[in-house]
Amino acid sequence: MNKYQMLMGGAWVDPAGGAWFESVNPFTAQPWALVPRGTKEDVDRAVGAAKTAFYDGDWRKLTATARGALLRKLGDLIAADADRLATIETTDNGKLFAEMRAQLNYIPQWFYYFGGLADKIEGRVIPIDKPGVFNFTREEPLGVIAAITPWNSPLLLAAWKLAPALAAGNTVVWKPSEYSSVSALEFGALFEKAGFPKGVVNIITGYGNEVGEPLVTHRDVAKVAFTGGDRTGEQVYQMAARGIKPVTLELGGKSANIVFDDADLDSAVKGVVSGIFAATGQTCIAGSRALLHRPIHDEFVERLLALAKTARMGNPLELSTQVGPVTTRPQYEKILDYIRIAKTEGAECRLGGGPAERPECGSGWFVEPTVFTGVAPRMRIANEEVFGPVLSIIPFEDEDEAVGVANSTVYGLAAGVWTTSIRRALMMSERLEAGTVWVNTYRAVSYMSPFGGYKRSGIGRESGSEAIREYLQTKSVWIDISGNSPNPFVLR
Ligand code: NAD
């Protein structure tokens, strides 16, 4: 097993406590790498290195154009290393190689896009209402950014934070999930290769309470950019509040995929299947509720079951596999618990409903693609994020009811609408409380388009030109050019 080190101030170092933990391959359920178990002492070292790089190092002296060039170089290096990094991600988190490779091939775009934005961060000259005074604004970096990421798309979600944070001139301490740290540590080598000054990006691994908390609360961390579950997000928000630190929170969802009777049903069936069974349902944007218009409900369910039954499970490294294992044992147990809860609440299980014990699943943590009909909006299965391949089907009578049910959860990350009516498409996209609305498609994301949650799904936006604002602060500069001495006892 490879034994890894952490990246701090440009050096690869052992954890201060001298402890490592095993990273387990979800397909074999066997450990395959040793990850450093960081502690508060390591957090102090990593933040110290990032602080030094921010205030004293070569980073601040670079022009914005040179910063952008470094980001673009990094993008090229990722593209050249995509297959290797994707294989590592699949071995670490069990998600399909086909999906991770597509993500890795796309990640460079975040570095190209934000690399391009680096030298387009401009202030304003304000035609101020006071004669003899010149007023302008500067957009400045915040300082040391703590980036905390989950296990489901480790490098993609890190790129969403690192690319704008670095483009804006900040330095970063990145803590990946304890379940998927290996790709982060391998990725770390590329920063040095690209020519980033030492300490601009630091990577520290370990558990949420041992590394995440001291990182969020560290007095030299200026901002926290977090992706993860909403309960953890709530804790992170509370801890950051004590230090009056801004946060970006990208949290969970219970997204509705809404199918109207005028939809192209072939596309809609594929869209609903993709929304919940792709990535084994382990995505924040999973369309875990299918809201079906009553006139097409029965036919749609039959077609959905027919397609879902064909999903090929197995080794996530094989390109023919469509549904892989669940990433962690606790997550596997949580999904099975939710299936039991749904059955107890009276939902009707029409497909799956338990662990997958097919020979091709080996000893991995597999759950059968599961479909419940007869789900009532009040049931837990219709409200809580399962983060697994479990779909809840809820019928609706009309548009108002569809909107009401879709908006009835505490979340607001995404929604899908399937219709051929332009009126419905526009009306629904206005009335749905979600940061992303897809019409006649699902799971589309881009570096160009802002992404984030309404309500309990989060705060702030990643991707798109909006994202860079999350890593900047505005300074207003006043210069007296009148040559007069004003009355010192009144507001100028
Ligand atoms: P998680 O909340 O358990 O962990 C996320 C990260 O937070 C990990 O690195 C973890 O070590 C760290 N952490 C845990 N406790 C902490 C603490 N007290 N202080 C600081 N850091 C702490 O989430 P997960 O299980 O890794 O990921 C799944 C969740 O992430 C799901 O809820 C999913 O919806 C969400 N998610 C959201 C998005 C989005 O963009 N909105 C994207 C992907 C995943």
Helix content: 25-40%
- According to DSSP, the number of beta strands is 23
Instruction: Give me the CATH fold name of the largest domain.
Output: Aldehyde Dehydrogenase, Chain A, domain 1
**In percent terms, what proportion of residues is strand?**
15-25%
Mean pLDDT: 96
Largest sheet: 7 strands, mixed
Distance between the termini: 67 Å
Instruction: Output the CATH homologous superfamily of the largest domain.
Output: Aldehyde Dehydrogenase, Chain A, domain 1
What's the helix count?
A: 15
Task: Give a structural overview.
There is one protein chain. With 492 residues, the chain is an alpha/beta fold. It folds into 2 domains: 2-251 and 457-476, 3-Layer(aba) Sandwich (Aldehyde Dehydrogenase, Chain A, domain 1); 256-439, Aldehyde Dehydrogenase, Chain A, domain 2 (3-Layer(aba) Sandwich). The chain is 37% helix and 21% strand. The longest helix is centred in the N-terminal third of the chain and has 17 residues, at 64-80. The chain is globular. The chain starts with a strand and ends in a 12-residue tail after the last strand. The mean pLDDT is 96. The structure holds nicotinamide-adenine-dinucleotide. Nicotinamide-adenine-dinucleotide (NAD) binds at residues 148-152, 157, 175, 177-178, 207-209, 212-213, 216, 227-229, 232, 235-236, 250-253, 284, 385, 387, 413, 453, 458. The site of nicotinamide-adenine-dinucleotide has 31 residues, from helix 8 and helix 9.
